[in-house]
Design brief:
Blueprint lengths: L1 H17 L6 E5 L10 E7 L11 H15 L4 E6 L3 H15 L4 E7 L2 E4 L2 E4 L12 H4 L1 E2 H8 L5 E7 L33 E4 L17 H11 L5 H15 L7 E3 L20 H8 L5 H10 L4 H15 L22 E4 L5 H17 L3 E4 L5 H13 L7 E5 L3 H4 L7 H4 L8 H5 L2 E2 L2 E2 L2 E7 L1 E5 H6 L8 H17 L6 E4 L6 H13 L4 E3 L5 E3 L1 H14 L13 H9 L3 E6 L2 H6 L10 E5 L13 E8 L6 H11 L2 H11 L2 E2 L8 H6 L3 H9 L6 H4 L3 H17 L4 H13 L8
Parallel strand pairs: 2-3, 2-4, 4-8, 8-9, 11-12, 11-13, 18-21
Antiparallel strand pairs: 1-3, 5-6, 6-7, 9-10, 13-23, 14-15, 16-23, 16-24, 17-21, 17-22, 19-20
């Protein structure tokens, strides 16, 4: 099929160039006539695929974003490196030190694993194996080595360390150098001379992850600040620091050690007029389907590895097949072909955006219409705020929005009723997914793909201890305790029985609702809009969750996001974990230590009479009621949410489809072992009360996660927390339905 051919070819090309097939070690070479008149050099390293611990999601994506930004700003040499073993790490440092010796600016950025031992910070090559503290000197790279590499630059000497993560070797190493050793974050750097050091999170803190598709909060803010015209480096750092504090709710605070000069990275106040390298030029093209631009690239850079990708894209545009149902619901499609593009916001930069751009390009070719794709902001709050601002201002320049399942109630009054265009095709969606898209009997969005909380477990350890996947939360507690006791007795002192996302964020709201529903509880509202949750079920759920803390779950679980829990699980030191479907794909990568060892099942019941359920997650596509191109926009939405596109996404990208028929499709089921369990989980999932509450949903979520966190932290009893939840909900009345 067209999409599959296109995506497979693009993925193979990207794999070759980015280092999935072999290590990446190229430089973005010699930008001439750039923004800067002085000589600037940078070394950018992203270590993701570690040999002895779980791979990381963010470093490869974040390092590319930093390298692209520095290239765009006129750096004469940007060395972008990925997945460096120790010998090549040292070699690249030596090469860079020689460049820095003759440079005005020298910047090193490192993303990956870092550890602190005896007050010193070390960065881990991908081949590091740290069995004792004394191994660090021979296995890792010290922060001092990075600062030394920049020390001879004339004006700017800066090292940026984005490695404030949990120590992946903490549980398995033996102390031989004293007791000063942290399992979380880094230490304040020692004296660094004239070199400034930036840590993405201050000493002892963990940096927040960007997740499956987005850049981390730190890098997302950093690259934006560096691009700000006329903003000097010191001001750029403080802008980044403040934005990260706000975006993470105070959980992450970047720190500066040393002094940054009052020199701006973007001195020209623009990014045009740069004579780009082939890498930067390809980056600037994005996912364009403009033939002229692609042809010009192949002529300008005939020997570039990206030229092959450009030729593939040109050929695919030429071969694109007509998909007849792309405009099946747009009765006046022949009258709407004009130069006014349909605008769609879909996907954050990365895999998700690439899929959307490919699919949109096919619809555009088949209908003769133009489409402008607007990448969505990575932070969820930023994306929602973008949509709210556009809709409240009644702007006409955003036609289609990709919205979270909890936003349909918030945005409903400003969205088109798609019943006028869908011709009943919405009924092919899973009932729970469709339920989340209907507000006050109006189809305000079309379901696109879905999510639900699942239980992941170590198949090998269950077999080792003669256990079966737990059917109830009580069985899970017993099995987790047995495995934890056995593994610790075998020397894994930090082994944990069960991890979950205990951080006070939307993920904890989801898990709390799953636990309450497992014991038979649900959110209710009476005829006056007064909200409540079953007190007995809430109390029992909180007693169960609190009972895990300090027994099968560590006390620090209240600080763990889904991604942080995933990393620890994939390091091999956890028996069970609650998380989202994307985890299985990562555990099955070739570099994963757990490949073939992880099982997945719907979440357990609360007692033998409880429910097996999960909270519905996922995304929908909606059309702004202020769009001047409703028919074209609706046609594109129906194409993107149709069975052909959803099947391609399921097979090639692992996206759980919103269409029930695809869970009976042999090709789909064969492509991903998680889909049968996903179907069970989603069909039994519960929908968060966002449609009922509309704009008040955020208040509901805040109340629930704050009280649950207090119970988990031991600040209040489960009984007191359950009572406080209902007391606070009583004051939060649901808006009267129209």
């Amino acid at each position: 099929m067209v999409i599959r051919r296109f995506i497979l070819t693009a993925v193979l090309l990207a794999a070759f160039v980015s280092g999935l097939c072999k290590p990446l070690h190229y430089a973005l070479a010699n930008v001439s006539g750039g923004l800067a008149s002085d000589r600037r050099v940078a070394l950018v390293i992203g270590n993701s695929r570690y040999g002895s611990v779980a791979p990381l999601v963010d470093p490869e994506r974040d390092s590319r974003a930093v390298a692209a930004t520095l290239t765009e700003l006129g750096f004469s040499k940007v060395m972008l490196e990925a997945d460096l073993p120790r010998d090549r790490f040292l070699s690249r440092l030596r090469t860079f030190a020689e460049l820095a010796d003759h440079a005005d600016w020298a910047i090193v950025y490192f993303a990956g694993h870092g550890i602190e031992v005896n007050g010193d910070d070390f960065l881990l090559p991908v081949d590091a194996r740290v069995l004792t503290d004394t191994d660090v000197e021979s296995e890792a790279i010290s922060l001092r080595q990075l600062t030394a590499a920049t020390a001879k630059a004339a004006n700017v000497r800066l090292v940026i360390i984005d490695a404030s993560r949990s120590n992946p070797f903490f549980a398995s190493t033996t102390r031989e150098m004293g007791d000063h050793r942290n399992d979380e974050g880094l230490a304040p750097p020692g004296p660094t001379g004239d070199v400034a050091v930036v840590l993405s999170a201050k000493a002892g803190q963990l940096a927040r992850e960007g997740g499956q598709f987005a850049n981390s909060p730190f890098v997302a803010s950093l690259v934006k600040s560096l691009r700000k015209p006329g903003l000097d480096l010191d001001a750029s750092f403080h802008r980044t620091r403040n934005e990260v504090i706000v975006s993470t709710g105070g959980l992450q605070e970047p720190a500066l050690y040393g002094t940054l000069p009052k020199l701006a990275a973007n001195t020209a106040g623009r990014t045009g007029g740069i004579s780009l390298s082939d890498d930067a030029a390809w980056e600037s093209l994005g996912a364009t389907v403009d033939r002229t631009s692609l042809t010009r690239f192949t002529e300008q850079f005939p020997r570039s590895p990206w030229s092959a990708a450009a030729h593939v894209r040109l050929a695919e545009l030429q071969r694109a097949l007509v998909i007849s149902d792309a405009i099946r619901d747009d009765k006046s499609a022949t009258d709407t072909i004009d130069d006014t593009p349909v605008t769609i916001s879909c996907g954050t930069p990365g895999v998700e955006l690439t899929f959307c751009e490919r699919e949109v390009a096919i619809w555009a070719r088949n209908t003769g219409n133009k489409v402008k794709v607007i990448p969505a902001p990575a932070p969820m709050d930023d994306r929602l705020n973008l949509y709210l601002k556009s809709l409240e201002s009644q702007e006409t320049n955003l036609d289609i929005m990709q919205i979270d399942v909890t936003w349909s109630g918030i945005l409903a009054d400003n969205l088109v009723d798609l019943y006028a265009y869908s011709s009943g095709t919405e009924n092919e969606s899973l009932p729970t997914a469709l339920d989340a898209a209907v507000v006050s009997d109006r189809l305000v969005a079309m379901p696109w793909f879905v999510d639900s909380g699942l239980l992941f477990y170590r198949k090998d350890l269950l077999a080792k201890y003669g256990l079966k996947p737990p059917q109830t939360w009580e069985e899970l507690a017993e099995s987790a305790a047995a495995i934890q006791k056995g593994e610790r007795a075998r020397g894994k002192r930090k082994f944990q029985g069960f991890l979950f996302n205990g951080l006070a964020a939307e993920g904890l709201t989801c898990f709390a609702l799953e636990m309450i529903n497992a014991y038979g509880g649900q959110v209710k509202n009476d005829e006056n809009g007064v909200l409540s949750i079953d007190a007995a079920a809430t109390e029992q759920a909180l007693k169960t969750m609190s009972g895990w803390i300090g027994n099968i779950s560590p006390k620090r679980v209240v600080r763990l996001s889904e991604e942080a829990a995933r990393q620890e699980f994939q390091n091999g030191n956890v028996a069970f974990m609650r998380n989202w479907p994307y985890v299985l794909h990562l555990t099955e990568e070739n570099s994963s230590n757990l490949r073939g060892k992880v099982g997945v099942t719907p979440l357990p019941r609360g007692g033998v009479l409880g429910n097996r359920t999960g909270v519905l997650g996922g995304w929908q596509l909606a059309v702004s009621k202020y769009s001047r191109q409703r028919k074209k926009a609706a046609s594109l939405v129906l194409f993107l949410t149709g069975i052909e596109v959803q099947k391609e996404r399921a097979i090639e990208g692992g996206y759980a489809p919103a269409l029930g028929a695809l869970y009976r499709d042999p090709d789909v089921l064969k492509s991903n072992a998680i889909f049968p369990d996903m179907y069970t989980a989603v069909t039994n999932s519960i929908v968060r009360p966002s449609r009922l509450l509309g704009p008040k949903y955020d208040d509901f979520s805040t109340i629930l996660r704050e009280e649950v966190k207090d119970a988990l932290s031991g600040k209040t009893s489960p009984e007191a927390a359950a009572e406080a939840i209902n007391t606070r909900l009583y004051a939060l009345r649901a808006p009267q339905q129209k």
